[in-house]
Design brief:
The longest helix is centred in the last third of the chain and has 14 residues, at about 290-305. The chain folds into 3 domains: about 5-125, Alpha-Beta Complex (DNA Primase, Chain A); about 135-210, no CATH class; about 225-329, Dna Topoisomerase Vi A Subunit, Chain: A, domain 2 (3-Layer(aba) Sandwich). The relative contact order is 0.11. By secondary structure, the protein is an alpha+beta fold. The protein starts with a strand and ends with a helix. Strand 2 and strand 3 form a beta hairpin. Helices cover about 30% and strands about 25% of the residues. The strands form 4 sheets. Strands 2-3-4-5-6 form a 5-stranded antiparallel sheet. The protein contains 11 helices and 17 strands.
Length: about 325
């Protein structure tokens, strides 16, 4: 029987390179030293001109330090980085890593799997030997304006409690193929300002490059939806929270302009975008966690008293969509 990979925390620490992960999210190093074992970056968590984010290969694993942060979360391993970067749990971080790097790591025989620690908690998959890095394997083959797949609609309406009839105006049906396996998958795509797609479904969370973008890497970016009231803007961390507001208000469009960060380290990009307009009111819908609090503070420092946080509306929950799910549950 073919070897299999156990996608657990030990697998992530031993097999996933932080430079590879940073590259997958569009972060390029400012300098590389010690024969490729030490990298310096402009921080992925804020805007800066001098690099303060450092990662190195030490003790058989990649570790990182963000010397510009003033909290205890300013260092760690690959899982800790992904938790902070994407605001996810450990299990969600492992799922993202599995999607990005399904062929990294040494497989073991099935007969030995039951001897692994915490066997009941690990995720297993057949290993394809000699595969290329996963970030180069996923290719969008078709983009449809209308979402037709029942499982995708079920994910929106069921797991996310979103009114899919309102949401589908903003989503595209993305078909993509793993070039190494030949398998094709369906996912929901939310277009960003660079033309690429923030994608979500029950099993996949990531960004896929537009088939029209041939001469560049995948681009993380904000999304902008114009409204009729040009004196106000609503800013969301992710598009599910934006769709949550539409569901709660039972409206197909918001009267104000909308900006979706798509990831918290796009906050500098969003603020620069906002500064080009004359908004009197800036309504923020950030998560009720440390990263959300820091992002709110950053907006207030940069944009002043026009910033009006709305996270009190879902104060018992991490984000607005969790509140919606609990309300409908």
């Amino acid at each position: 029987m073919s070897p299999i990979i156990s996608y657990n925390a030990q697998w992530a620490k031993e097999n996933i390179s932080l430079p590879d992960l940073l590259s997958a999210f569009g972060h390029d190093p400012v300098s590389v030293t010690k024969h490729g074992y030490e990298y310096w970056y402009n921080s992925p968590f804020r805007y800066e001109k001098e690099p303060s984010f450092h990662t190195s290969y030490l003790g058989g694993k990649w570790i990182w330090n963000d010397f510009g942060r003033g909290d205890v979360q300013g260092n760690g391993n690959v899982i800790g980085f992904l938790q902070l970067h994407e605001n996810v749990t450990v299990s969600e971080a492992l799922q993202i890593l599995r999607n990005l790097f399904p062929h990294k790591g040494q497989g073991v025989l099935w007969s030995k799997v039951n001897k692994l620690p915490l066997f009941q908690d690990i995720s297993l998959s057949q290993k394809e030997l000699g595969a290329a890095p996963a970030e180069n394997n996923l290719e969008v083959t078709k983009v449809r304006e209308q979402v037709w797949d029942k499982s995708l609609i079920g994910y929106l309406a069921g797991e996310r409690s979103i009114d899919y009839q309102l949401a589908l105006k903003y989503l595209k049906h993305i078909s993509y193929t793993n070039k190494k396996t030949g398998k094709t998958y369906q996912t929901l795509g939310f277009e960003n300002e660079s033309g690429d797609y923030e994608c979500r479904d029950k099993f996949f969370k990531g960004i896929l490059k537009s088939p029209n973008a041939e001469d560049r890497n995948t681009a993380k970016d904000i999304s902008y939806i114009p409204g009729s009231e040009k004196n106000s803007v609503a800013v969301f961390e992710g598009f599910m929270d934006f769709l949550t507001v539409l569901t709660l208000k039972k409206v197909p469009v918001l009267p104000v302009d909308v900006i979706v960060l798509n990831m918290v380290n796009m906050r500098r990009r969003a603020i620069d975008f906002i500064k080009q307009s004359n908004y009197e009111h800036i309504y923020t819908f950030f998560d009720n966690d440390q990263s959300g609090e820091k992002t709110t503070t950053f907006f207030k420092e940069e944009l002043g008293q026009g910033v009006k946080p709305q996270n009190h509306l879902y104060q018992e929950f991490k984000d607005y969509n969790q509140y919606l799910q609990a309300r409908k549950g």
